[in-house]
Design brief:
The chain is α+β, with helices and mostly antiparallel strands. The chain contains 18 helices and 10 strands. The longest helix has 21 residues, at 203-223.
């Protein structure tokens, strides 16, 4: 008789909890007093009432979960801080799903029961409210929010981050009036019109702005999805390629010709030693202005006669050999140097940053247009004019063409670039050529440098 009553109670409880199996193996001597198939210990099940839920203690750490005895799947979660929330717990496709309903007591027990019944019914139909909520949030993602996610996922230089934010968020940029617009609301027609407006202002900014916007759409297509399907299925910026409205921007070909190099060199003497030496180093190494300006003494090895640039534009560290003239220049700067930067600013707390201003002063004194990158182009053009191998030039200026299969097999060592063999090392050859063109070294008749090939 006792066994029959026990079985009846046990099966009734399993039916309520949704775990009924026709012939369960029951142990009447369970050490805990709880049948093995009961999903949650009995002490965590109770009839949900306002008074009962308010009386429940908060756990010392983590969370405690209490299940409603009348509504299977309805759970009250309590944090160590005493925060109480209703949620629904069920398995969908063999995976646990937790759907938060709301805080207790603002959400009453009766309201939670009604919401739980609806949520459980939708789960039974295979509809996950969490997934729907995430989809709705993703569809409402604004351009500014996508930019934030993009910047968080990328490792970009501070200058690049600042420029991207300027394009999207600053009224003087390109998309400030779109920053709160959902990404899915940006149409192809809007892209075409905005690009046309920006072209009137600056073709360069127009191209760059929509290159950034296209990158954000590509990122969003890979990042946001629903049911394993991307939420962003088209990139409206492709309209510009389809109708051929990208601006054709010719590359600058400016460099300092041999006829003007002497005047330019003499004009550097008008500067203070720090900007003067920095401009000369940029000319004789082909480094970009920020790469040269940010050099620290820890990057200079006067014993092995090398210069190391850990952070470059293409994220590939660069180590260069030093010519004799640069060894002397850096050796003189090292004497008495007490600051970490080779070219410190006036405060000594950072590196020299006014490179464009220094270039402008020198160019004005020498009677030529100012352009910092002219120094890099002058270095490359000089190397080409004395028949330095193209792959050697690429190695010196840290250029890399991913489409050049042969280049991937060519490994050029520092010793190949610096150590004298039968001919002078390429870096020394380029330095000597430029020094002669500037009149710093005695030279035979100068050969006019050719216009650099694009």
């Amino acid at each position: 008789m006792f066994l029959r009553v026990y079985n009846y109670c046990y099966i009734s409880r399993l039916i309520v909890y949704g775990n009924y199996r026709p012939y369960p193996q029951i142990s009447l001597r369970s050490s805990t007093g709880v049948a093995p198939d009961t999903p949650t210990p009995a002490k965590h099940r109770l009839n949900f009432t306002k008074a009962a839920l308010q009386a429940l203690p908060a756990p010392a750490t983590g969370r405690a979960h209490f299940h409603d005895a009348k509504m299977p799947g309805l759970v009250l979660s309590i944090t160590a801080a005493g925060c109480r929330s209703f949620l629904v717990y069920r398995k969908l496709n063999a995976r646990p799903v937790r759907v938060t309903l709301g805080r207790f007591p603002p959400l009453t027990v009766e309201q939670a029961c009604r919401m739980a019944a609806t949520t459980l019914a939708r789960l039974a139909e295979g509809v996950n409210s969490n997934a729907e909520r995430r989809e709705a949030q993703a569809r409402a993602l604004t351009l500014s929010e996508v930019l934030n996610d993009y910047l968080a996922a990328r490792t970009l230089k501070p200058k690049t981050v600042k420029y991207y934010r300027w394009l999207v968020e600053d009224p003087a940029g390109a998309f400030a009036d779109w920053k709160d617009k959902p990404l899915l609301a940006i149409s192809r027609d809007q892209v075409e019109r905005r690009h046309r407006q920006l072209v009137e202002r600056s073709p360069g900014i127009a191209n760059l702005a929509f290159t950034v916007l296209s990158a954000l759409f590509k990122f969003a297509a890979a990042r946001y999805e629903h049911n394993s399907q991307p939420l962003i299925v088209s990139n409206p910026v492709k309209r510009l390629s389809g109708i051929g409205t990208w601006c054709d921007l010719p590359r600058r070909q400016d460099y300092i010709s041999p006829a003007k190099l002497g005047a330019w060199w003499q004009a550097t003497e008008l500067l203070d030693p720090t900007p003067r030496d920095l401009l000369l180093l940029l000319l004789l190494t082909g480094l970009r202005k920020n790469e040269g300006a940010a050099l620290r003494w820890q990057h200079i090895d006067l014993i092995s006669q090398t210069l190391h640039v850990p952070e470059t534009k293409n994220h590939r560290p660069l180590t260069l050999p030093l010519s004799d003239w640069l060894m002397n220049l850096l050796g003189e700067r090292l004497d008495g140097a007490a600051l970490p930067y080779v070219f410190p600013n006036a405060s000594g707390r950072g590196h020299f940053t006014a490179v464009p201003l220094a270039c402008h002063k020198v160019a004005e004194a020498a009677g030529m247009p100012r352009m910092t990158h002219d120094l890099r182009r002058t270095f490359i053009t000089a190397a080409e004019s004395i028949d330095i191998h193209p792959y050697t030039i690429k190695a010196l200026v840290n250029h890399h063409n991913s489409g050049d299969v042969t280049q991937g097999y060519v490994q050029i060592s520092i010793e190949r670039l610096r150590a004298p063999m039968q001919l002078r090392a390429p870096m020394q050859q380029i330095t000597d050529h430029l020094l002669k063109a500037a009149g710093v070294k005695a030279s035979a008749a100068l050969v006019e440098l050719p216009t650099r090939r694009s």
